[in-house]
Amino acid sequence: MTYGxxxxxxxxxxxxxxxxxKARELRExxxxxxxRNRVFLQGGIALGVVAIAGIIVLVLVNSVTxxxxxxxxxQSDGIIIGKDLKAVPTPAIPAKGKPVATVRDKKSSVVSIRxxxxxFCPVCNAFETANKSQITSWLKNGAATIEIHPISFLDRxxxxxxxxxxxxxxxxxxxxxxxxxxxxxxxxxxVKQPAEDTAGLSNAQIIAVAKTAKVHNLAQVSSCINDEKFxxxxxxxxxxxxxGPLPDSSVKTVTGTPTVIVDGVEYPITxxxxxxxxxxAAFVEQTAGAQFDSGQSTSTxTxTxTxTx
Length: 309
Prior knowledge:
Elements: H1 6-63, E1 79-81, E2 111-117, H2 122-141, E3 144-150, H3 163-177, H4 182-191, H5 203-212, H6 218-227, H7 231-243, E4 259-262, E5 265-266, H8 277-288
Helix pairs in contact: 3-5, 3-6, 3-7, 5-6
């Protein structure tokens, strides 16, 4: 009997060499796999970075509203309603242009009322409801003018639908295509005002409001509302009102709505008098003085916006 012959050793050597070769092959495969994984990971990261960058660019592009012209008849950022509820015609603010403040005739007996409002604002609604009858009478008689500045103050309260902005845009649409119907449109917007912290009215519902108010050129107004044609102007006008200064006024900026200014003097609205027509009438009479006559027509022309220095 023999032990550990040469043939047996050769067989063991061959097996060890084969095992080493197999180990080398496995290590090489693992190395190649790891290299591929690194390439895929780096490529995925790069694609992810590109995708994220693309999303950021898209968001920035969509968030930057390009300059656009404002509505006709709102050269001052507001529309003036005068005798017989007719609007005072003015040019539009051009793209990249600035508003032209209304120059009030301080010698006129016609009282100048200016109001910065948000169609979503319940306090604005209370003031409007209390005073619309007597203000309508003053306008028809030519005793007063009202300059309405719609702004978007309460977008945060409409559950992401931007109702205040869309409502102000609708006001711009009416001013542009049917200015003489603006007062009726404003009244109806408050009649149909939704509650705060709701989605507000849809565009279709705003158009229905315009139809109820018998707004003319409804097809053009509707298209303007759906396209949000004056979106850029609403944003710019709101920024101007909240940044100030407010022209021909003792008020520096709009810090809340409604902000009501009578012959350059702010009407101090409180919870007690916001719904009091008598309180507002007394303030108008006191501010305007003895020349104010709420019951008679006047031949004094409605003030027209002209450039200021």
